[in-house]
Amino acid sequence: MSSTSRTSATPRPVRLGLRENWLQFTLLVIVNACVGGLVGLERTTVPLIGTEVFGVTSDLAVFSFIIAFGLTKAFTNLAAGALTARFRRKQLLMAGWLIGVPVPFALAWAPGWGWIVAANVLLGINQGLTWSMTVNMKIDLVGPARRGLATGLNEAAGYVSVGGTALLTGYLATGYGLRPAPELIGVLFVAAGLALSVVVRDTAAHVALELAQHPTPPPGGRGAGLGQTFARTSWRDRSLRGACQAGLVNNLNDGLTWGVFPLLFTDHGLGLAAVGLIKGLYPLLWGFGQIYTGHLADRVGRKPLIVTGMLVQAAGFVLALALLDHPLLAGILSAVALGIGTAMVYPALIASVSDHAHPSWRANALGTYRFWRDIGYAAGALVAGVLADTLGLNATVVAAAVLTAASGLLAARWLTDRSGR
């Protein structure tokens, strides 16, 4: 009996790979779908809540909720990498969900615009911790050979949920008003995400195994600190610098369209359902596309997808203005181009950063990259607010097209491939 007891208590051997860890990987995919669903609550309705419910007249003031979200999420991403040295990934994942509990209730019943902005501070912390941990844990599980596919599946789950929720909230707002019905579906995302996070196993043993198998030891025999990794990822390493600037501009586009597109297309006569379609289609294509593009990044390399994807996004902004006399067509074609372009870029950038970072400081490198990437939300909202207030919404879209094309050219100059294919 004692022999049987000892045998049953023997832990399973730790192995790297998607097939070997499919159950935990699948649970994390579902968790990240809940993460995306919570932020998807805001994509269609919140800019219109600012103008129509609270009477906010300045575009910059309307976009302040995105600035609050972007800054908070960016700094939480940075902190999340450092926190993995003190806490297990699972603990940080659960902490992120607990912080997100008040968000749907605040969005549904906030008595003033300041409450919406405050809710987005909590949402930024929630997203920074939960999304950072799901992507780190998936990369831990699969090992170096399948990073592109792992990040593609992670981001696909999140952004398909963002898009589906944006679409759903648009239709709910048409039938039941801007509040509270569209926002309360977020309660389901929080409850499911927290419950599943309790079940997920931590991946510390997988990180230890990859460290043991890695061909080169960490610099100095140990992992680099946050300050050293921040400097290396932000500017000292040419490829990591190229990834950071592309990530920043990519999310600048998302932040800009988050605030600008609902106002632009309602100004041209579209209703909430049509705006919800446009705002949903963009992240849906972004999400579903990453299932393929993540796999493709493992086969052809990261750089071709990143450069081409940024140029496709720039074309999406051009389409939005070129066809504005037919606003629904303009919105749909723009959303298609932006969604496909972002799907090409997103998993390839995360995989590229992982390729250039040693496992001992990879969490900090990813945190630094995600810091700069999500600063783009705040930068996009700030640029959009200032330009929209001074030059108009159309000029804001033109500026985004020029900046995105320039970022693609910088990526072509700075990035190098070091994938495990």
Task: Explain what this protein looks like in three dimensions.
This protein is mainly alpha-helical. The chain has a single domain, classed as MFS general substrate transporter like domains (Growth Hormone, Chain: A). It is built from 19 helices and no strands.
Order of helices and strands: HHHHHHHHHHHHHHHHHHH
The total count of helices amounts to 19
Shape: globular
Strand content: under 5%
Assigned CATH class: Mainly Alpha
Number of strands: 0
Stated plainly, the CATH topology is called Growth Hormone, Chain: A
Rg from Cα: 21 Å
Transmembrane segments: 21-41, 61-80, 92-109, 156-178, 184-200, 305-324, 330-350, 371-388, 394-415
Main location: membrane
Pfam families: MFS_1
Membrane topology: Multi-pass membrane protein
Which keywords apply here?
mainly alpha; globular; transmembrane; transport; membrane; transmembrane helix; 421 residues; MFS transporter; disordered N terminus; Growth Hormone, Chain: A; single chain
Short description:
The chain has 421 residues and is mainly alpha-helical. It has helices at residues 2-9, 22-40, 42-53, 59-62, 64-83, 89-100, 103-109, 113-142, 147-176, 181-184, 186-199, 204-213, 226-236, 238-267, 272-300, 303-322, 327-356, 362-390, 393-414.
